Amino acid sequence: MSLKAIGQLRTIEPSELELMLSWRNAPSVRANMYTRHEISLTEHLAWWERIQGDNNQLYFMYESQGVPLGVVAFTGINIANHNSSWAFYASPEAPKGTGSKMEFLALEHAFNNMKLNKLCCEVLAFNTPVIKLHKKFGFKVEGILREQHYIEHSPVDVYCLGILSSEWHEKKDAMREKILKLSKL
Questions:
Q1: What pTM value is reported for the model?
Q2: What is the distance between the terminal CA atoms of the chain, rounded to a whole angstrom?
């Protein structure tokens, strides 16, 4: 089975902005975000317009077998220091395993196409499935920002995770094989 089974990251088409917004506004997605309010189409389109000229951000549509299933974002891209933060979210209807496929492609893009040395992310402490997923891919917990973010008047810890290019290159073949094996099921 080829890498096509994993899918691809591609440019987001303007016609997909409403689909992207519908995923982002899904309660299961919003619950794990810093920004948790329901985003209006006007707000979403203004944000999209604003980031189009920003070289420090890249957004991609994740697609598998011709079906858009999620969004991958690189933010705070620092070319001089070869690092960036990243995040992703999937369609609430995406099949099981979509997050792993998106993470694999994001790491490949970060270290092979963007030539980064380090990729970072932040995860709200209660989002343990995503923390575990990142660790499975080789991310290390680099710190915990205690009571960093408030949700409904309650403080929440934020996990800071990072992975180096060298760590990913040690891990990627095994992760690719696991994903391809699961894709056959």
A1: 0.95
A2: 12
